[in-house]
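Exam revision sheet. Question 4 asks you to relate a sequence to its structure. Input first:
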Amino acid sequence: MELFGRTLGAQEIAGLVFLLGALALWANVLRAQMRERRWVRKREAELKAAKKEPGGPDHGGPWG
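Answer key, structure tokens:
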């Protein structure tokens, strides 16, 4: 196999394949991390909004 006018051996090809695999793995981990961070922020905002909202009429006890 030739790349940029240079013949590559089996070791160079294996190294390129490994680097591409590591890059793909890193991209998937980064994407999952960003998705989790988005979920946590959304959940915190929902909990904060639920705390601020009044629950309903409170008549001072379980029997009203």
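Marking note for examiners. The first strand starts at residue 2 and ends at 3.
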